[in-house]
Structures are given as C-alpha cells and as structure tokens.
C-alpha cells in the first residue's frame, strides 16, 4: 500500500501538488555523463530536448552542468556557469519548475538570480556557503545522501545498516535546514542511489524507501539507467529503459513523490497506469 505523505512541495515560483508522483526530466549539459554525455551539450539540442520533455509530460526539468557519475572529475566554476546559465535563461518561461543540479554555492547564487526554482545538491547543502545562498530564497531543495565524493565514493562503501544510516543523515540535514530558517515545505530528500553504495545497499534502500524520510518531506528518487539496474539485467545503459520504469514503479509504490528520469514519456505513461490502479483500489 502506498504510504501517506506530504500534499504539496514549495518550489520557487511553483507550488506543486503531490497527489501523484511527479516526473523530473534530466537535462545533462555535459560531455561525460554516464548515459547521455555530450548528447545535449550543444545549446540548440538541449533546448529541443527540454521542450520535448515538457511535451512528454515532465513536471520539472533538472539541469546539470557537471557529471556526478562515479570517478567524474570536477568542472571549473566558470565552465559550469557557462553551461547552465544560458539554459536557465532560455527555459525560464517554459511553464514548469527548473532545477539546477549543483553543489557549488556560487552556481546556486547565479542560478537563483536567473530564476531557477529548485537546487538539487548531491552534498546535501554541506559545502561552506551553501545554506547562505538558499536561506533568503523561496526555492525548493533536494538534499541527497552521499558517502565520500564522486571521485572516491564507490571505493568499498560500508555501512552497519544502510537504511538506518541514510535515514539518520537525511533527518540531520532536515534539522540543520530548519535551524537555518528553511521551511519543510521547501525540502525534498534523496537517498542517493549509487553515491557511495554497493549493489546490495542500493536495493536495500529501494526496498526500505518508506523508512528513509519523515512523512511530511517528499522523497526524490534517481535510479534511471544506473548500474544497479545493469547489474540485475545484464544490459548496458542504453538498454535499461524497461528496468528504469520498473524501478520507478517500485519507488512510487514505496512512497517516492518525485522520480528523476531520462525517459520521460515512458515513465509518465507507466506512472499514469500505476496511479489509475491505486486510485481504483483506494479511492485516493
């Protein structure tokens, strides 16, 4: 049974209803992302993909200018700004919230000045200066769990109880954000699949998803085309659409409110069917 959860999410210019799982489309403006690296690096290609995702039913678009795949190298600040700011400017009036996937406070500040609606931070707003950039805004936040950093996170990650430890980390970050004056209505949390976790850790987190966040803070899940799916199916990243949809349905069934994906149209359709069945079963 789908567990109860928050009804709305404050996301910059938008207040999103959470009566069904929302779909966040991924727009990587990078040459080295694990699945779509370089595909949308040209400005025109990225713009076309963003509009296509809106047509396919995306509820949000997450713009990234620096790959965070395992082993990825850091991108200089000016290069990241040069990739993402023109895209935010071009898409600001696209009609759905824009998210920026960054951990750099300077990028947060510049993106917010351009009107971005959500900051998606793999470091959970732990970098010096990050909280200061978001305190005075109305942007939504995604707080992610990561063990280590992208260069080292997959080198023998270890936990006593991965679900309990990830839940404790996310709860601690929620408390820290509240102490900084940020309302829970602006927060979402992400357990960080693949960010310092083994295959077993990832599937344990997916199975125990409902235990990872307070009932009034929405879970944002990103498993699309990741290696955890390839390990089970034996398929490369470009053949993991079906596995990604299956994982999205598993996440929705366990309470995920926002699903971050590459395959927007397929995921939207799958979640519509899941939601229709749930509504027929529960009347909600």
UniProtKB/TrEMBL annotation:
Protein name: dihydropteroate synthase
Organism ancestry: Bacteria, Pseudomonadati, Pseudomonadota, Betaproteobacteria, Burkholderiales
Organism of this sequence: Mycoavidus cysteinexigens
Transmembrane residue ranges: none
Associated pathway: Cofactor biosynthesis; tetrahydrofolate biosynthesis; 7,8-dihydrofolate from 2-amino-4-hydroxy-6-hydroxymethyl-7,8-dihydropteridine diphosphate and 4-aminobenzoate: step 1/2
Catalytic activity: (7,8-dihydropterin-6-yl)methyl diphosphate + 4-aminobenzoate = 7,8-dihydropteroate + diphosphate
Enzyme Commission number(s) of this protein: 2.5.1.15
Cofactor: Mg(2+)
GO terms under cellular component: cytosol
